[in-house]
Structure formats: structure tokens, C-alpha cells
Amino acid sequence: MKRTRLLLLAWALVLGLSACGKAPSGTTTTAASEPASTEAPAPAAKHLRMPDGECQTFNPYLANTQDEMMNDFAQARLYRRFAKEDRKTLYMRPELAAEEPKQMDAEGKVWQIRIRPNLFFTDCQGNLTDKPINAAVFEHSFKMALDPVLKQRAGDNMSIYITIVNAKEYFQQTPEAPVKWEDVGIKTVDELTLELTLAAPSTQMNVMQAFTGYGTVPTDPDLFTSLMENGATAYGTDHTKTLYCGAFYVTDWVKSSAITLKKNPHYVFADEIKLTDATLYYVENYQTQLEMYLKGDLDSTALDAEIAPRYAEREDYLSYPARYLMQIEINRGNTEKPILDNMNFKNALWYAVDRVALAKLEAATPANYIIPDTSLANSETGLLFKDTDTAKSYREDINASYDPAKAKEYFDKAMEEEKVKGKLTLELIISPATPEQSLCAQFLQQHLAEIFGEDRFELKITENQDRANLMKTWRDNPNAYELCLSNWSRAVTDDSPFNVFDKYSEIYDMKVNAPYGNAFINETIFLQTTDPRVKTDQAYNVELAGQMEKEALENRLVIPMFERNFQYLVSPKLLLPLEVPQPSMGFTMRPWLADLLP
Q1: Tens of pLDDT along 221-235?
Q2: Number of structural domains found in the chain
Q3: Residue 302 domain-assigned?
Q4: DSSP letter string over 413-479?
Q5: Enclosing domain of residue 357
Q6: SS3 (DSSP) at 280
Q7: Smaller CB count within 10 Å for the chain: N or C?
Q8: The CATH number of the domain where 587 resides is what?
Q9: Both 333 and 469 in a single domain?
Q10: 191 Cβ partners below 8 Å, 6+ apart?
């Protein structure tokens, strides 16, 4: 799920293209040249130039947000969503899979996936290798993603849409409670058939959804294992220690500078890829990005909250919801500051935040809710959760959530109850070099002191590069932090509002914040492992999501403030696959599917 800088997310891609071509006759092949007299003219080069985050690894199982774009350009999945010709919507399509998953039992617990024949990896020179992509390769890849020693990020994500028998148990096993791979519900039936056994029934769509993420990218078994040593792997540490199966392959990687890609002629849908090559530049500073774009050196640029308002009237300006809610996380388990778990204090924070003013400052949408505006209640009709009767029944008007007088009253009660004399000083941790968080923190620092009294309250702002790891230390050190800003996002929530609350429960393995301690949410979230309707009945999913959001809001588990928007300038020459990103398919730009006009 992901909390990152806007720059790293600007072209975050939950979906991508990829894969290879026909079987080679030898080990590594190159196309034979035609005589010059019969050779067709080479198509005009279409070189895409994009800003990107600082890529850390090409290993898809370790990849984080900043690594997504490269993986989506250069690696394939079993299934992927592609743009329709009308450029208005996307549709799910088999990519490395030959067809949709086939249900093998009456309950929907056993599924088979057929792999396309004659698939092979491509190397960093664009040559087709003799390394096949088949069912056994996928099984080995998933085994590596779930490896209990490597402990890679992908292991946490393998049970989002479906629950594979013993997959999580294998990933989380201990020496005292070992689990054999043979007991995991992933099996090779034959060369091109993979069989999945699930703990709960699933729909065909959910099975496909489960294999669209970059954590399910196939990797060559020989190369991956040859680079393993001392409980780690060097796979993906540079572009030569990776094989490719996507729409592009990487020809060069200058770390902290640029990634150079070329179109992969062996990709299964190579004839649909219009770009000839691409360069992904790491440009950390938004102003530098903007200057490069205005000079014509980039085909797009992300805009931060400070810059965006100045360019909002331009024809090349594009904005859409980012799925990220900025919120205050409260370490309710901090024993040195017990006031953090005082309900009156949490109410004081709730009513002290002027969400409308803050959102205007951030060029965002004010939010007193937790389920983002991108979450669908009905994928077929496009009904958003926020527009349902369920949401309207308990969500209050945004203006009612700001009441300085009420905030001060609650604050005074909390201070009295906790016997706090003098000034209460709290530390707010934020990510450095993140304008959105910096603006928000400064706003809170000033306005909370004005409401609570400068002689009674002080908010100190601390930038911490390793904020996420600091948060994780609460298990051993409950006083590791007091308050922090976070902006969570998970693609699964686009069509499953229920899963917004994974991170508020004990079931969420990736969570870094102290336990929220809400029994109702813990019990309800656990239903996804026992009640198949959570994943097969969207109306039921929405009903439970509403109950959990109501519970979380009433108990002030977090203090939501605003929902961020992605904001860009996009060259008129860059024809994106979608005119406007669609919530039902994930809010992403998919630039590898784009075209460049003359």
C-alpha cells in the first residue's frame, strides 16, 4: 500500500504491458537482415521522455512505488488492463496468459491458468533468449515472491484479491511452525498450465486481478537463484542482472539519473506499442522538472501543490484524484503521552483542522472520510462509494467537521483529564523533501496553536527520511513517535472499499503504525478469509466497508484532512491511452501505451 512522494507516484502504475515472442531455435537469436533493396523504411522514432522516481531495484518482488514505472514498461503479467480504442475505458485482457482463468470445481476454489505457448525472456540487448516462460517458471517465481527467508514485499501482496491455500502461512512460517512449499495451493499441471487452490471461493475477475501486480512478474529461475547469497538476491540490482518480458527492455540504467528503454520486438502485443524508445529521468526537484518541460526536454511534468495553481488554466494541465488521503496518524499506544489515546483530545484534533482551507492550499479535495473518492460501489455502473446511501447515512458535511470553539472545549477537557499542566508539546513526523507534507505540517503547526492557545500547545515538526522504519519500531518501542502524517493508497480499493480498512486491522502485515486497537474492525476484516461474499458480492463488500468507516470515524482512529490530486502538464504531442483516468480501472496514466504525434 504505499505512502510516497507525489513525484514517485505521479506515474505510479498498478497496470502495465509486457511479454515476449516466439520460441527461438537456439540460445540467443537476432533477426536476420533483409537485403537493403527490399528493406522497408524504418518508422520514425518516437522517443518518450518522462520524469520518474529514483528507481532502487529491478527485482519485482522488492519493488516499491519508485520502481513501478520501469517494471510496467519492461515486465509482463498474466493479466493486464488495456485501453479500449475509444480511449475512455479499459478492459481486462490475458497478457502472458493464453485465456481467462478456468474454474475447475463447483465452489470456485480451484482454478487453472493457461500460459501462452512459445514465450521467452528478452535480454538487455534486445535478444530473444532460450529462457522459457511457462507454468514451472511462474510457480518458481511465486515461490520466490513468497520466500520466507528473502521476506520480499511481494509476499505481503499475494493474498489481496484471492486467498491461496497456505501462501501466507508459507511466507510467514517460523522454525517452530514450518510450512512446506508442496502444501501451498500453487501447482504446475503441465508445461503451460498452472493450477491454484484457494481457501475461499473466488470470481474469475478476482483471480485475474490477483495477477496484474508487479509482484507477480515472472523471473528466470536460473538467473534468480544464481544471484542468491546469504538470504538475499542480487537479481535486479542492475539492468544486466534482469531478463525482460514486457513491451520494452532496459538498455542502460544510470542510477539516480536515468533509465533508457527500447521497444521489445518480442513482446506478445508488440504491434500495438507505438513508442520506439523511452527515457525515464530521475528529477527530484519539481521546479527543475517544470523547467525541463517548458524547454521541451520532457513530454510531461508532475506539479506539486505550490506550483500547480499557477498552471491550472493552461490547456496542457491535467488533474485527477490520486486515491491518497492525507491524514494524521496518532500513536495511541505511546505511554509517555497518554493524552494521545484520550477521546476528548482526538475530538479536539478532529474539529481543529480546517480541511477546506488546507485543501485549497494543497490544491486538493477536503476530506472528513477514509474511503477515497476513487472507490467504486458498483464496477459495472460506475457508482462511487461516496454517492451511495450507505456513505450518506453517516458522513457529515465537510463544514461541520471544523469547529474551533468545540475543538478548544475538547482540548481543555483532555488536558484536565490527563492532568497536563502548562504546555503540551507534540512531535509531528513528516517525510523530507515532500512539499505536500511540509505545507500541511506548517499549516497545522500554526492553526492548532491558535485554537488551543500558544501557551498551552506546541507542535514540533520533524523530518525523517526513514520515517516508515521508525514507525515499525512501535512493537519494541511504543514511544517511538507521537504523531505522523501519512497518505495511504492501495489499488485494490478502487473496486473493493472493504480493503481500505486492512491497514487499520491486525491482519495487515505491512502496517507500520501502532495498533489501532479496534475490535470491530479486526473482526470484520477477518471475514475476507472466512466469508467468500466479501470478494464475490460487491454490495456486501460495500455494506461492511460502510460499517467499518463509520466505526473508524466515530472513534477518530485517524484524522483525515484532504484527498490529493495528481496534477501534470502533458505535452499536446503526447497522446495518452486514456483521455481521463477511470476509477474502475485504477487511476494511472499508462505512458508505455501512449503515442507521440509529429
Answers
A1: 999 999 998 888 999
A2: 2
A3: no
A4: HHHHHTT--S-EEEEEEE-TT-HHHHHHHHHHHHHHHHHH-TTTEEEEEEE-TTHHHHHHGGGT-TT
A5: 321-565
A6: strand
A7: C
A8: 3.40.190.10
A9: yes
A10: 134, 135, 136
